[in-house]
Amino acid sequence: MITPQLVGELLQQVRAQSPLVHNITNFVVMNNTANALLSAGASPVMAHAPEEMEAMAGIASALVLNIGTLSRQWVEGMLIAGKTARKRKIPIVLDPVGAGATTFRTETCHQLIRECHPTVIRGNASEIMALISSDIRTKGVDSTESSDEALQMAKTLARETQAVISISGKTDYITDGTQVICIRNHIPLMPKVTGMGCTASALTGAFAAVSNDALTGAAAAMAIMAVAGEKAASAAKGPGSFQMHFLDALYTLNQDDINQNLKL
Amino acid sequence: MITPQLVGELLQQVRAQSPLVHNITNFVVMNNTANALLSAGASPVMAHAPEEMEAMAGIASALVLNIGTLSRQWVEGMLIAGKTARKRKIPIVLDPVGAGATTFRTETCHQLIRECHPTVIRGNASEIMALISSDIRTKGVDSTESSDEALQMAKTLARETQAVISISGKTDYITDGTQVICIRNHIPLMPKVTGMGCTASALTGAFAAVSNDALTGAAAAMAIMAVAGEKAASAAKGPGSFQMHFLDALYTLNQDDINQNLKL
Amino acid sequence: MITPQLVGELLQQVRAQSPLVHNITNFVVMNNTANALLSAGASPVMAHAPEEMEAMAGIASALVLNIGTLSRQWVEGMLIAGKTARKRKIPIVLDPVGAGATTFRTETCHQLIRECHPTVIRGNASEIMALISSDIRTKGVDSTESSDEALQMAKTLARETQAVISISGKTDYITDGTQVICIRNHIPLMPKVTGMGCTASALTGAFAAVSNDALTGAAAAMAIMAVAGEKAASAAKGPGSFQMHFLDALYTLNQDDINQNLKL
C-alpha cells in the first residue's frame, strides 16, 4: 500500500505544489508546526477568527484542527472552517489533543467529528481510545496507553466516523478500518519534544492535500516524520538539538534517506 | 537546607514520577516551558478554558499561573484552577510577569494571591518588589532592580502571603520569610533568552510537586536552572544556541554536573 | 542615505539604550520576535489586553502592531495602544500579515492605518500591494508577488499614508514615497523560517526608536536582518539551524560583519 518510493514521490509533490495548509491549532506548537510545514515544502497559515474562516479555508488545500489549547471561542472558528473545507472537499485533519483528559476536550472532538467529518483523525493512543471509550483517561496531553492496544479501537473509530485513523506511538498505525499500515521506526526522543504529534498532524494535512487517498497521505506523513526523526536523533544530544535537526532533516530529506531509514 | 545531593535526588524524583504540571501561562513562552518540563522529566499540559479548569487542575500534580500575556478572560480560568489546586493541596506557583509595569498586572497578582494562596511566588526583582511597593516600576517584563535589593521586601512578602518567594537575578534568593537560600551561579546569557524566568517557574512547579516542602522544591528548581544554564553557556555562541543547549542539558544533567557546577 | 557605518552606529544605539518595544503580535512568532529583540539588545514586551494598553504603550519606546493571528478582540487593544503611541510620538510599525488573503485582514489594516497612522508599514510584496489594490491575493501569509513589482505601489502607499513602506523580498525596498533604499542581500533560507518577516518588523520598531528619522531606522533594521541572515546562512544546514544561528548572529554582530556582508 505504501512504499519508500511512493513516500518520496509524495514529498516531491508537497515541495512542487507547496499546498496552503490552514491550521487552527494550539498556542504551544504554532511555531513548530509552521516551521515543519515550511521545511517540508508546504505553505502554512495560522488563523482562527470566525470573521475570516470562510475566506481562509476557502483558499486552502487542507485544514488542520487541533484542540491543544482549546477555548469556546476557537471552536466557533473551527466549525466554520470545517464546514467550508467539507464543502470544498479538501482534506480535514483533526488532532484530538488531550481527549480523555477533560470532558470539554472529548465532547468538543465529538462535535467536530459530527459537524465537520474529518478526513483523518491523528492522535496518540489514549486520545484515540478516549474517542471510543469513556473509560480512558489521558494524562494531560501524554498517552497512558500503547498504540498496539489502541489499534482495535482505532479500526472501530474509522468505521464509525469514515475517517482514516492515525495513531502515533512506538509503532505508528494508520487505518481506514480495514487496511492497516505500520511504521515501525521508534524514536525515543520524539515524545520529549513538545508538539511532535501536532507536527505530524500538520504534515498529514500537507500530504493528504497532494495524495489521491487519505490513507496513503496520512501514512506518508508519518513515514516522513519517522525518517526525519531518525536523521535528527542520530545527530541530537537531547531534545533541544533534536528539534533543530528535525527541521533541517525535513528540509534536506531525499529518496536515499527514505529508502535507508523507513521501517515499514 | 539544600545540598547538591538533595538537588540530584529531587531531579531523580521528577524523572521517576513525571508529575503532570498544569500551566496557565503566556503565549510567548508556552513552547519553551513545555519543552523544559519534558526535558527535565515532567509532563506538561497547557490549558486555560474555564470549562475544563476544574478537570485539568483536578488531575495535575502542580499548577503554574503566569500572567505574561494577561487578559481578563484568562484570569477567570486561573481563579478556577487556583481554587481547585488549593482544595487538592497541590503546589501553586505564581509568576507575576510584568507586575509593576501596569496596574492591571499588579492588581491581578494581588487578586490571585488573595484568592488562590500560591505556594511559591517566583519573579525578578522588580516584579517581587512591585507586589510590596507601588513605587516600583518594571520595564515591561525586565527588571530594573537587583535581586539583592529585593531580598528584604521578599521576606516581608513571604510573611504576608505565607508563600515561598523565589527571586531570580545575579544571585537567586529563595525565602520563606525566615530562611534564605542563595544560588550564586550568574549566567549573563540567561536574560538574553525570553522566557527563562517563566521556565524557572514551570520547573518550580515540577520540583515542588515532588518535594516535602515548598522552600526546598523552589530552591532545587533554581539550582537545576543554574546548573543547566552553566552547561549551556559553556557550549553556546549566543542566545540561540544557549536555548538549544539548555534543553539538552536539562535532559542529560547528572549528579556530577550538579556537584561541579552548583554554587550555593 | 544609509551606510554600513550608520547601520553599525544605530545597532550600538539599540544595545546602549535597550529601547522597550511593545508588541501586539501573533501567536506564531511571539517567541522568535522577543528573542530577536533581546539578541539585538532591545527589551521586548508582548501585551494585548485593552485594560493595560495605555499603560504599556505609555512606557514603551516603540509599538509594533502585527495582525498575523488576528481576532476582533485584539484589534481593540491595537487601537488603544496605537492612539497612545501616536499621542506620545513614538514610532508605530504595522505588519499587515496576510493582507490580501482575507477581507477581514485587509480591512483591519485600513482601519489601523486610518486610526493609528503607523510610522512604518513593513510587509511582503503581496501584502503591501493588497493595501493599494483589491486585485492582489496573498497566499495565506506568503507573497505571490516580487518586491520589484511592489515598489511603485509602495511609493503610492507611502504618499497616501505618510508612512515609510518597507517591503521584504529578494531585494528589500524601503521608501518614503520619494527616496528608495535597496538592500540587495538575498537569503533563500529566510522565507523557510516562519516569522522572519515579523522579526524584521519587530527590529524595525527597535531601530526606529533610536533613529532620527523613520526611513533610516526602517532601512537599518532590514540591513541588520540581512547581515545576520548572511552569517546564519553560512553556518546553517537547514531552516532549523538557520533560526538558531540567526539569533547568535544578532547577538554577536559587529561593524566588520556589517562592512563585509551588507549589499546596498
From TrEMBL, chains A, B, C:
<keyword id="KW-0808">Transferase</keyword>
<dbReference type="InterPro" id="IPR000417">
    <property type="entry name" value="Hyethyz_kinase"/>
</dbReference>
<dbReference type="GO" id="GO:0004417">
    <property type="term" value="F:hydroxyethylthiazole kinase activity"/>
</dbReference>
<comment type="pathway">
    <text>Cofactor biosynthesis; thiamine diphosphate biosynthesis; 4-methyl-5-(2-phosphoethyl)-thiazole from 5-(2-hydroxyethyl)-4-methylthiazole: step 1/1.</text>
</comment>
<keyword id="KW-0547">Nucleotide-binding</keyword>
<feature type="binding site">
    <location>
        <position position="168"/>
    </location>
    <ligand>
        <name>ATP</name>
    </ligand>
</feature>
<dbReference type="GO" id="GO:0005524">
    <property type="term" value="F:ATP binding"/>
</dbReference>
<keyword id="KW-0784">Thiamine biosynthesis</keyword>
<keyword id="KW-0067">ATP-binding</keyword>
<comment type="function">
    <text>Catalyzes the phosphorylation of the hydroxyl group of 4-methyl-5-beta-hydroxyethylthiazole (THZ).</text>
</comment>
<dbReference type="Pfam" id="PF02110">
    <property type="entry name" value="HK"/>
</dbReference>
<comment type="similarity">
    <text>Belongs to the Thz kinase family.</text>
</comment>
<dbReference type="GO" id="GO:0009228">
    <property type="term" value="P:thiamine biosynthetic process"/>
</dbReference>
<keyword id="KW-0460">Magnesium</keyword>
<protein>
    <recommendedName>
        <fullName>Hydroxyethylthiazole kinase</fullName>
        <ecNumber>2.7.1.50</ecNumber>
    </recommendedName>
</protein>
<dbReference type="InterPro" id="IPR029056">
    <property type="entry name" value="Ribokinase-like"/>
</dbReference>
<feature type="binding site">
    <location>
        <position position="46"/>
    </location>
    <ligand>
        <name>substrate</name>
    </ligand>
</feature>
<feature type="binding site">
    <location>
        <position position="122"/>
    </location>
    <ligand>
        <name>ATP</name>
    </ligand>
</feature>
<dbReference type="GO" id="GO:0009229">
    <property type="term" value="P:thiamine diphosphate biosynthetic process"/>
</dbReference>
<keyword id="KW-0418">Kinase</keyword>
<dbReference type="GO" id="GO:0000287">
    <property type="term" value="F:magnesium ion binding"/>
</dbReference>
<keyword id="KW-0479">Metal-binding</keyword>
<feature type="binding site">
    <location>
        <position position="195"/>
    </location>
    <ligand>
        <name>substrate</name>
    </ligand>
</feature>
